[in-house]
Amino acid sequence: MIPYKIIEEIKQTFPSIPLLENEPMKNHCSFRSGGPVRVLAVPPDEASLVSLCAFLREHEITPYLLGNGTNVVFPDEGAEDLFVLSTGAMQSVSILPDGDLCVSAGLPLSRLAAFAQEHSLTGLEFASGIPGSVGGGVLMNAGAYGGELKDVIVSVRCLDLADGSIREVPASECAFGYRQSCFQNGGKLILSAKFRLAPGDREAISARMKELNQRRRDKQPLDLPSAGSAFRRPEGYFAAALIEECGLKGVSVGGAQVSEKHAGFIVNTGNATTEDLRTLLSLVRDEVYRQKHILLTPEIILVSPSLQ
Ligand SMILES: Cc1cc2nc3c(=O)[nH]c(=O)nc-3n(C[C@H](O)[C@H](O)[C@H](O)COP(=O)(O)OP(=O)(O)OC[C@H]3O[C@@H](n4cnc5c(N)ncnc54)[C@H](O)[C@@H]3O)c2cc1C
User: Fold this and answer.
1) Does residue 299 carry a catalytic annotation?
2) Rounded distance from Cα 300 to ligand 1 centre (Å)
3) By alpha-carbon position, which residue is closest to atom 10 of ligand 1?
4) Of these residues, 179, 208, 278, 285, which one is catalytic?
5) How far apart are CA 264 and CA 69, in angstroms?
6) Alpha-carbon distance 294 to 247, whole Å?
7) Which of the four CATH numbers 2.60.120.260, 2.40.30.10, 3.90.78.10, 1.20.120.330 does domain 221-302 have?
8) Ligand 1 centre and the CA of 2: distance in Å?
9) Would residue 304 show up in a list of annotated catalytic residues for this protein?
10) Average pLDDT of the residues in 260-270
């Protein structure tokens, strides 16, 4: 339990940082489930975020980092001990003298792709329909339609939560792989990233973004809440095809359902709980293993109540 006294001290020391107390995480996650966490803090800029992290470090509180909440779900019972730190308000983007883009962690990837298009820069069209933030996207090495963020990232600036140091990590040291990066080891807060794009034709970039977003609307259940692809792609297979072949399309637990439109997604048909999602993920994983002898690994991150 985070002492009341500490929360009061944070309010006094950082009056510019909005603090939401006992905040239901269903309001901040695209799957729309999850109970209240003790605090959700949304620093307006990098300086206040770094100072707040120093304060938390002094009081031995490790924050849970939140981007746009499109790949993560929180426990239904909430988490009294959890201090969630959102990068959502840090949304700056600028073009550096060398032409690279410097982008804050909280900027939605869709906004970054739109910015690139407006400046006739090509390379991020694939990301325009990914609903995450730059920080969450870097951590997951988000990708679609043959592109991955690692293809256009030059470096990532991050704050070490353990000692407060800030370091710019070149892309070559980020251990990027399929939906993978070194930042998944924890302990680092991604502050911003540098992207290198190529000059392109503004109209052609726009047309490609429209085409890919139409493909998404045609194939994916975007009308219902979800957390994106439920499982990682097993090598040599497609998770959605395996799930469909096992007759699991449309199967549900409570309000969580394997999408009728795209078996790779689990959607919230109304009042799904995180427990419904967790149970359905296990059911799908076990049934696919029973029939195909292939073990699926969830891509959705289920935050544990005992994280701190
Ligand atoms: C409809 C839909 C479609 C999707 N399509 C795709 C797709 O095509 N391709 C794809 O790759 N993904 C897709 N996703 C999944 C999701 O959008 C991506 O994984 C995205 O990168 C997550 O970003 P986020 O900001 O929402 O991260 P969150 O869900 O908020 O967090 C994800 C993880 O990143 C960590 N994190 C977030 N920000 C930071 C930070 N600044 N520093 C350190 N750690 C941080 C969190 O602690 C958590 O562990 C889709 C999701 C939905 C709902």
Assistant:
1) yes
2) 9
3) 142
4) 179
5) 19
6) 15
7) 3.90.78.10
8) 27
9) no
10) 98
* pLDDT tens-digit map of 168-223: 999 999 999 999 999 999 999 999 999 999 999 999 999 999 999 999 999 999 99
Is the pLDDT reported for residue 66 higher than 50?
Answer: yes
Provide CATH 3.90.78.10 ranges for the chain. Answer: 221-302
Tell whether the torsion through CA atoms of 239, 245, 249 and 252 is positive or negative: negative
pTM over 0.85: yes
Query: What residue ranges in the chain does DSSP mark as E strands?
Result: 19-24, 36-41, 64-66, 72-73, 79-86, 93-95, 101-104, 121-122, 143-144, 147-148, 153-160, 166-170, 188-195, 198-199, 226-229, 252-253, 256-258, 265-268, 301-302
Per-residue tokens: 1: 């339990």
Q: How far is the CA of 67 from the centre of ligand 1 (A)?
A: 7
What CATH number labels 4-86?
Answer: 3.30.43.10
What is the CATH number assigned to the segment(s) 93-204?
3.30.465.10
SS3 200: coil
Residue type, position 11, single letter: K
Beta-bridge partners for 198:
122
Q: Tell me the per-residue pLDDT of 124-175, one tens digit each, with 9 for 90 and over.
A: 999 999 999 999 999 999 999 999 999 999 999 999 999 999 999 999 999 9
* Nearest ligand 1 atom, CA 105: 41
Residue minimizing CA distance to atom 43 of ligand 1 = 189
Which residues have any ligand 1 atom within 6 Å of their CB?
30, 65-72, 87, 105, 130-133, 135-137, 139-140, 142-144, 183, 189-190, 222, 226-228, 301
Task: Mark whether 229 is an active-site residue.
Answer: yes
